[in-house]
Amino acid sequence: MVKITAIRGFKDVLPEETPKWQFMEYTARSILANYGFREIRIPVMEKTELFTRGIGETTDIVEKEMYTFIDRGEESLSLRPEATASILRAVLEHNLHAVNPVLKLYTIGPMFRRERPQKGRLRQFHQIDAEVLGSEEPYVDAEVIALLMHLLHALGVNHVALEINSLGCAACRSKFREAIRIFLDAYVHSLCPDCIRRSKNNPLRVFDCKVETCRESLMNAPVITDYLCGDCQSHFLRVQEYLSLLSLSFVVNSRMVRGLDYYTRTAFEVTTDLLGAQNAVAGGGRYDGLSEDLGGPRIPGIGFAIGCERILALIKEEHTHNGPYLDIFIAALGEEAQKFALPFSQLLRRKHIKVETGPGGKSLKWLLKQADRTGTPYVLIVGENELNAGSLILRNMKNGEQRLISTSQLEEAIMKILRSEQN
Ligand code: HAM
């Protein structure tokens, strides 16, 4: 029979790798809590319309990359390609903004995009996503960016560059769109068919194109920052002022447009030169019109998402604890020994000791080898003769030393030894 394997672009996280994930998630959760963020958990699947309206019908994500299906001939559903639209949907659905006009929410979980898998690019990947809803103030933009940089720093990810831009409001964008349309008309012969289509439907999306000739044509294209209205310009300047106040270094990249249509004003990306082609480790921005696009009231928002797999590739081993996962292994030889080991291991576990009892019917040699594989520092050998004689052997796996401990004092002695080991 042919073996069943995982889907292309969908990856297992094996037990050796999970300590790194736990370190990342734990660090993220505690720092997000320091900034007043609370966790929200949203479904992995939504009505497709949420993403077509939220992210934009003519974005690559919606046009090419969503896992969409018709549920039993009735309704079009999609696996979420990102979390922002879902978080806003949940806020509107549960009226969270009515109770708390400034919401700080985060979620950690898998996202799905049907991109061509390659190093650093998966079809199921994970994001740490944080959103602030209810404020337009530029200091919030600076604080959100500061949080992102703080988080990356706490994870030991330091070789990164922060780029920012302003994408303006609807008014600036429509002037800019027109300028791009006129500019593209002159290059129509050197554009790929996708960009010809984009230049008509959604000219800003030409900046997502990976085709070399299109990229070259766009070198002299107008830039959004030249089309910002007075309010957007001063918002952007204040964001920069606050970032400097926080001693955060950044570069203004006026060609950065981001791949989702909901952005307004501040947009940012964090890149690294340590990962090759897939160099974006995090991205985000403001989306002051998204709530209205989803049928809600005006709720300005800003947030970011960190790509977990890309961050994990940068987290050094020394930042994670990958030591033995057991404190003690019990090698029980025979049925009577197992009858002793079963309740005894429960007793230790209730005292927060990590215990595993080896399987029955195995030799001592086999059990010691198995104990060694777990990296456990101690093995309690429970032989039937020793049990009847009232004392058992505790073996120190590091130096091979063995000591005989009376069963009546076993729990106390083990606790004492393990505690002194932990200190
Ligand atoms: P995004 O830039 O599409 O933004 O994704 C954020 C991050 O997710 C990227 O910088 C990258 O690290 C990671 N990522 C994206 N696609 C893949 C993939 N196929 N494989 C591995 N990692 C990937 C958003 O998703 C927005 N929702 C961010 C946001 C939140 N904006 C406002 N609030």
Can you tell me about this structure?
The chain has 423 residues and is α+β, with helices and mostly antiparallel strands. The chain has 2 domains: 18-169 and 229-318, Bira Bifunctional Protein, Domain 2 (BirA Bifunctional Protein, domain 2, 2-Layer Sandwich); 328-422, Rossmann fold, CATH 3.40.50.800. It is 39% helix and 21% strand. It contains 16 helices and 16 strands. The chain has helices at residues 18-34, 48-54, 60-65, 84-93, 96-99, 138-154, 170-185, 193-201, 212-217, 230-245, 290-293, 308-312, 335-350, 364-374, 384-389, 410-422; strands at 38-39, 45-47, 68-71, 75-79, 103-112, 124-133, 160-166, 251-252, 264-272, 280-286, 301-307, 328-332, 355-357, 378-382, 391-396, 402-406. The strands form 3 sheets. It has an 8-stranded mixed beta sheet with strand order 1-5-6-11-10-9-7-8. Strands 13-12-14-15-16 form a 5-stranded mixed beta sheet, sandwiched between helices. A 3-stranded antiparallel beta sheet has the order 2-4-3. The longest helix has 17 residues, at 18-34. The protein is elongated, with a radius of gyration of 28 Å. The model has no long low-confidence stretch (mean pLDDT 94). Bound molecules: histidyl-adenosine monophosphate. Histidyl-adenosine monophosphate binds next to strand 6, strand 10, strand 11 and helix 12.
